[in-house]
Design goal:
Keywords: Transcription, Transcription regulation, Transcription termination, Transit peptide
InterPro entries: MTERF, MTERF_sf
Family: Belongs to the mTERF family.
Distance between the termini: 42 Å
Structural class: mainly alpha
Number of helices: 22
Radius of gyration: 26 Å
Strand content: under 5%
Order of helices and strands: HHHHHHHHHHHHHHHHHHHHHH
Protein name: Putative transcription regulator mTERF family
GO molecular function: nucleic acid binding
Length: 373
């Protein structure tokens, strides 16, 4: 695959087809065309919060004859926590949902989601995204739910997977490839916690074609990743998600900062996801760490995770605070950047700001100002 990693790894292209089933519907109006058009427009504008322009565009595909059905649909979604803006997004994405029978078609699906722990916060994220509302509850949703539950062993993780990528739920690979993919991991001794993390956070990776998944797993094994550690599945995620050309482009960027291929490989073993950062972010963050903070480029490779942190909101404010503390002799001059950058916001304030409030009463204010700039 990637010259310095695994020579035999090859990239295979995968195309994901998304199809909106609503486009297959047609509605025939037996009433006066003009009155129907006017009613449809007013309903889309007043009840669904659409702009006149968007409503006019949708009205060419959709015609509402009676207000009772659409109003019942709208009220149902409102009762499940949909805001005006979320209702508008739903109708834009799936206009023909307004023609559904709220009690017979929609309500059972919403109740099913509720039964597995979905909250009012989850509903819009799951339902606006893709085909859940048009899929058969008995023939599609429940059977696929059972597959997903067998992979993550927890309804909370099922809901998270649906939130993160509901469209993956309807791919053929979800049925054909997900179970054998996860079986490969289980045979290697990958903990259930890591498997659940992969499936719920990166369902498109867990459901990728089996041959590609196995190839990625073999590559990760040969690189030296430990199957018992979370980084094993994170490395799989990176390899499945990136093709050879992208890898090469990232390596060329780091070569500008003096990283050899061996250093890149070392950093990948430390924190696989660092190679997924955009070129712009890599250059800006490396420039700050090398020129402003004074780190040697090769030292950054020992903790490449710092490259993934937000430059303006995390790196700059935290480094500014530590610089002040060092100038007053309040922290060791040899304090490693990774020690305070990778810590949480709450712990950073507790350890490096609050204890020094008496000596530096404006330190917290300075930190907040840096974060807000």
């Amino acid at each position: 695959m990637y010259h310095f990693l695994i020579a035999r790894f090859t990239h295979t292209h995968r195309t994901l087809h998304r199809h909106n089933t609503f486009s297959l519907f047609s509605v025939v109006c037996n009433t006066d065309q003009h009155k129907g058009d006017t009613f449809t427009l007013l309903s889309l504008i007043n009840s669904c919060g659409l702009s006149p322009e968007k409503a006019l565009k949708l009205s060419t595909r959709l015609q509402l004859i009676n207000p009772n059905g659409p109003n019942a649909v709208i009220q149902l979604f409102r009762s499940y926590g949909f805001s005006d803006s979320q209702l508008s997004s739903l109708v834009k994405k799936h206009p023909f949902v307004l023609l559904s029978k709220s009690d017979k078609t929609l309500l059972p699906k919403l109740k099913f989601l509720q039964s597995i722990g979905a909250s009012t916060i989850d509903f819009p994220k799951i339902l606006i995204g893709d085909k859940f509302l048009t899929a058969s509850l008995e023939k599609t949703i429940i059977p696929r739910y059972k597959i997903l539950k067998s992979l993550v062993c927890d309804d909370k993780k099922v809901v998270l997977a649906l939130r993160r990528g509901s469209w993956n739920f309807y791919n053929d690979s979800m049925v054909n490839d997900s179970v054998p993919n996860i079986e490969v991991l289980r045979k290697l001794g990958v903990p259930q916690s890591s498997i659940s993390s992969l499936v719920s956070n990166f369902p498109c990776v867990a459901f990728t074609k089996h041959s590609r998944f196995v190839e990625a797993v073999n590559s990760v094994k040969e690189m030296g990743f430990d199957p018992s550690k979370l980084y094993f599945v994170l490395a799989i995620r990176v390899i499945v998600s990136m093709d050879k050309e992208i890898w090469e482009s990232k390596f060329k960027i780091f070569e500008k900062w003096g990283w050899s291929r061996d250093i890149c490989r070392f950093a990948f073993l430390k924190y696989p996801e660092y190679v997924m950062i955009s070129e712009k972010k890599i250059m800006k963050t490396m420039d700050f760490l090398v020129k402003d903070v004074g780190l040697a480029p090769e030292d950054i490779a020992t903790c490449p995770g710092i490259l993934t942190r937000n430059l303006e909101k995390t790196l700059v404010p935290k480094c500014a605070v530590i610089k002040i503390l060092k100038s007053r002799g309040l922290v060791k001059s040899g304090l490693r950047v990774s020690t305070f950058i990778m810590t949480s916001e709450e712990k950073f304030v507790q350890k490096y700001v609050t204890p020094f409030q008496k000596d530096l009463p404006l330190l917290l204010d300075a930190y907040k100002v840096q974060k807000s700039d």
